[in-house]
Design a protein that fits this description.
Length: 218
């Protein structure tokens, strides 16, 4: 019984080393971040009722890198989807580079949109802050623009067991809710502030988990 598993020809240790090496990601962190954030935004769009092929969501990291390489091109990551039950609703997703988002960058994005009249929404995924002038430029778009930091999309927090599923209330449901709890319309904005605090707490948790995940796999 003495020394069993502690001495020998080292074959067990070599096998263990190969097993552990399989868990280490030897690719670029940049491509891994784009892969994770792209998958999360696709899942989010699917949950909103947009037609997103399962093949896109189920794309593996290896397959993603085979298509986009270790340093993905932002323009190739751009994608658009149409709503399953309302073909007039079309959403465009644009990834922005690591630099600060300025007015000139917003103009470039506007140039990418060749059919703005059929677009009902834009999701802009950034890695840095946006200047006030750039935010004002986004207000000029005729459709809703949603801005996400890429770090907020590395993990889909809606998959967490403690995170309840969210959906947008209909106008009728909203009025019933306000009436049930005797809330006036103007008080709705105070509630949004409280929900925003809760949302930021979840974002901190998400960033922490994402950092630990990327640290372990890189």
């Amino acid at each position: 019984m003495e020394g069993i598993g502690l001495e020998g020809d080292g074959s067990n240790g070599e096998a263990l080393g190969k097993c552990l090496s399989g868990l280490v990601d030897d690719g670029s962190i940049e491509s891994h971040r784009y892969f994770l954030s792209r998958r999360t935004v696709l899942e989010m769009l699917r949950d909103r009722g947009y037609a997103v092929p399962n093949t896109e969501i189920d794309l593996s990291l290896h397959e993603f890198r085979a298509i986009h390489g270790q340093s993905p091109d932002f323009d190739r990551l751009k994608l658009s989807v149409t709503h399953k039950t309302d073909s007039s609703k079309r959403m465009l997703v644009v990834f922005y580079g690591p630099g600060v988002v300025k007015v000139s960058g917003i103009r470039l994005i506007a140039g990418l949109i060749t059919s703005k009249e059929t677009l009902t929404g834009l999701i802009l995924i950034v890695q840095n802050h946006i200047t006030n002038q750039a935010l004002k430029a986004l207000d000029l778009f005729s459709f809703k623009v949603e801005i996400f930091q890429i770090t907020d999309l590395l993990v889909n927090i809606t998959k967490h067991v403690l995170k309840p599923q969210h959906r947008v209330l209909t106008e009728h449901e909203k009025q019933r809710l306000l009436q049930k709890y005797s809330i006036e319309e103007k008080q709705e904005y105070d509630l949004k502030g409280s929900f925003k605090y809760m949302e930021n707490t979840w974002k901190f948790f998400t960033i922490l988990v994402s950092y630990m995940y990327l640290t372990f796999t890189s």
